[in-house]
Each structure stands twice: as C-alpha cells, then as structure tokens.
Amino acid sequence: MREDSTLKILFLIVLAYNIEVFINPIFMNVNIIIPFSFLTYSYFAYKDKNGFTASSSFLIGLLMDLVSGSYIGLNGLIYCMTTYVINSYKYVFRLFSYLQISIFFGIIASTYVALTHLFLNINNFSYLTLLLTLIGNTIFSFLISIARVYKPIIFKRRGI
Amino acid sequence: MANYAPNTSVFSYVFFVLLSSFLLYLDFTNETFSKPKNTYKTSVLSLNYFFKNYIFEPLVQFPELLHSKKNLIKQNNDLRLQVEKEYISNFVLSKNNDFFLNESKLNALVDKENNLNKVIISKLIKFDTNNYFCCSNHRLFIKPISDEATKPLQSAIINSQGLIGQIIYDLNGIYEVMLLTDIKHSTPVFSENFHCNAKGSGKPGIITCIYSELIWDEQFAIGQKFYSSGLGGVFPKNILIGNILDIKNISASEKEVVLKLKVNPITENLFGIVVSS
User: What pLDDT is recorded for position B103?
Assistant: First the structure.
C-alpha cells in the first residue's frame, strides 16, 4: 500500500482546520464540536503502516498550534499522546468492527475537545457539550467509514 | 511481507510530552511565544489581504468588466460603504453628551467639515467565528480604509450599534481587536450609582459583574441598563453596553450580574476606531 507523503498530510490537516472554522459555528448551536483537523491527523496516524513517530506528531502539533492560534504546546501534547495510543493498539484495531473503531475515534475526539477546552474555554466548560461531541463524532466517523464501502464503483476502479 | 512494528518507545513519547507541557506552561503563564505567533498572524493576514484584494477580486470582477458593469458595481460598493460610514458617524453624533472625554472635543468634531476625522473607518480583515462561538478567545482583525498616520493602540472600537472592544496589537497596520466578551477583557460600566469592571465571559454577547452584597446592598432588576463609565480613559462614557440578563448567587456574600450586550460584532464588516486625542 502506498504511503502518504508528509506534505500531503500537512496540507490535508490544515485544509481540515479551515473547514472546521467554517462548519463548527453551525454545529455549536447544538453543542457539538467536530475537530476535523484532529480527526484527519488521527486518521493518518491510524492508516500509516509504520505509525507516526513521537517527533513528527509533536512537530505537526506545533504547526497546528501556530495555525489555530492556541497556546504553543497544546496540540503538540495531545497529538503525541494520541499517537502513542494509536500506535500501541495498531494491530488490535484490525480485530475491531467499523462501529468499534468509530467509537474509538469519537472518544479521542471528545478527549481532544475536553483538553483544549480546559485551556481555552475553562469558564464555559460543559459536560453536555462533551457528551454530545462524543455522540456526534462517533456518528460522523461511522458515516465516513461506511462511505468507503458504499462509494461509487468508478472511484474504486481508479483506486481513489 | 513482514509488517513493521509501530514506534511505541515510551521514552521518546515521554520526552515530547514533557517538552510540550513545558512549552504550554511557558505560553499559558507568561505568553512567551506571543511574538512569533503575532509574526505568523501578520504574515498570514497580509497574504490573505493581498490575494483577496489584488488577485481574487480582480479575477472575479473581470467578467463583469467585460459586460460594462464595472461602474455600476463600483457605485454600488461606494454607496454601501458610505451608508455604513454614515451609520457609524450617526452613532457618534447621537451620543453628543459625553462621547469624547470633554464636550469641547465633540464640538470640534462636529464643527469640522468631515465629521469622521476622529473616528477612523476600518474594514474587517478576519474574524475567527469558530473561536468566538466555542472558546474564550474573542478577537478580530481590522484594517483602516485610509492610510492615516495614527497610533490607535488601546483605542475603542465601535460599529453602528455601539462599543465592541479595543485594539490590543498593531500588526503592521492590521489591528487586533479584543472584544468585550473576551475572557481577558474588562469593561468599566455603571448603572445609576453602581460601578464595576465587567469581565468578558467567553460566551458570545455576555459579560459579567461580580459584587459583594456587604458593599452594595441595593437590588438590581432584570433588564436594567448598564452604560460605559469611561474610567480608565479607553472607552467613551455613557454608551449603552447592555441589559441585565440574570443575577446569580456565587457565594454567601457575592453576586454575579450577567449582562447581555447590545452589540453583536458579527453583523457588520465596517468598524470605527475612536481616536479621542
């Protein structure tokens, strides 16, 4: 299987962040936060055959700190911890169903939201938002995973 | 084909987690990295501005130019700009009692031919609405339309509805504005004889005042109006800030007055920088 280049991964994460900036204000009306950039990163960390190294996850995290304007080190810290968890269970995931993997992604996404809100939004920290974020991200991840199965045949032939 | 084992060496992860935590501690407590972050913001905003104004808009307008609509569009844009400028100037003139710190300055303002010379009209460059709705960091970036030589750092920012915040950084001609609702912002307000510094709550449109009942024993009513007091010299005084939305008990002797702001910063693209020199 062909590995994705680092530049492509970085581009897609930054693109996902820009989509997140436009879409999340809409989801915020129903107390759901979907961290597209973090989910994109987690997807590539999960998909990568060898797994990301600690240094690369740290550097990607620093870049995201700069792009998102959050405290330097916040995304670096979370990305490192996430990479460790994903790498540790890399081969266990093969035994999981799509739904179980989606639940895993939902859990790490809501953990990400919880940790970022501890630093960026502590006064308005809401457990309801976290719960709805967990459900929303699980459903979102599940829809993405089954979309792979049901994508049009033409894409499958092209290997996209 | 043999599979590679993923890198799960605990030591490298522990090292980078500790390093991240250290950087986070430095930035969170001392804002150590504010300079590189500002440099990054300046370059991104300048690039955005350049691409939008000199590349994207001319490209978009090109087909319209071919259809001889250029003049019509320009006229339309000019009129819209003029209307928004008038809204802001009307707001300034409608507060003709104490908008500036003394009346002579207001008279000077009104007497001049161009009554906007104390309010620098600026347009919105960037507003991270994601942060505005999700987090405590409520900032926007504006750039004056004209190239006036001013130093508006700390100046108050208005739109046609009222006060929205103050300038905190000058990023080479693009100004970063901290909104009244930012968690780090404090606005001196008053209602009748009660004065307080209303802190930003981090929620859109909400600021709060905390007071001790041991010091202030009079009751507030829901809907009661609060005005800017002008203390500190940043904001003009007697500008309606908002109404009481709720009153909460936070301890045996302390209460929190929740104010709903009158102004919504996301409705307009033009702002005024109040330079009360």
Answer: 46
Q: In whole numbers, what is the pLDDT of chain A averaged over residues?
A: 87
pLDDT tens per residue across span B240-269: 899 999 998 888 888 899 999 988 888 888
Enumerate residues 128 to 157 of chain B having a beta carbon within 8 A of any beta carbon in chain A.
128-137
Asked whether the beta carbons of A65 and A73 are under 8 A apart, the reply is yes
Q: Of the spans A43-47, B45-49, B88-92, which averages the highest pLDDT? A: A43-47
Residues B241, B229: Cα–Cα separation, whole Å: 10
Distance CA A43, CA A86 (A): 10
Mean pLDDT for chain B overall: 81
Are the Cβ atoms of B37 and A72 closer than 8 angstroms?
yes
Dihedral sign, Cα of residue A78, residue A84, residue A85, residue A86: positive
Q: How many residues in chain B?
A: 277
| Interface with chain A: mutation pick from B18, B20, B48, B207, highest number of A CBs within 10 Å | B20
Spatial neighbors of B36 by CB under 8 A, at least 6 apart, are: A66
CB-based contact B23 A61, cutoff 8 Å? no
Is this prediction's pTM over 0.90?
A: no
Task: Enumerate the residues of chain B whose CB falls inside 8 A of the CB of residue A84.
Answer: 8, 10, 13
CA distance A8 to B155: 43
Averaged pLDDT for residues B133-159: 82
Query: How many angstroms separate the CA atoms of A124 and B201, rounded?
Result: 8
> Cβ of A122 and B9 within 8 Å?
no
